[in-house]
């Protein structure tokens, strides 16, 4: 019998999310404190810097989410 060989393969997924301006016509925000935008993607959590609670909200931020999966493959 021939020995089986194990190979490693990987899959990399990258998501780049750009948040520039958020509007919501007709909604009024309480001016108690600054607010932020939070996102959970690929098991990772990111949030923007705080901005004043006045529409339109100007974030101008880029979030990068990256996930690498490694698979063991057996040939033979």
TrEMBL record:
A Pfam match: SPATA6
Keyword vocabulary terms for this entry: Phosphoprotein
Domain of life, source organism: Eukaryota
Domain Spermatogenesis-associated protein 6 N-terminal: 16-68
GO terms under cellular component: sperm head-tail coupling apparatus
Gene Ontology BP, a term: spermatogenesis
GO molecular function: myosin light chain binding
Entry's family note: Belongs to the SPATA6 family.
Name assigned to this protein: Spermatogenesis-associated protein 6 N-terminal domain-containing protein
Organism for this UniProt entry: Neogobius melanostomus
């Amino acid at each position: 019998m021939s020995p089986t060989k194990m190979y490693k393969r990987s899959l990399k997924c990258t998501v780049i999310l750009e948040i520039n301006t958020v509007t919501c016509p007709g909604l009024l925000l309480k001016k108690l404190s600054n607010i932020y935008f939070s996102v959970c993607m690929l098991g990772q959590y990111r949030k923007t810097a705080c901005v004043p609670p006045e529409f339109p909200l100007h974030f101008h931020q880029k979030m990068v989410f990256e996930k690498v999966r490694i698979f063991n493959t057996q040939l033979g």
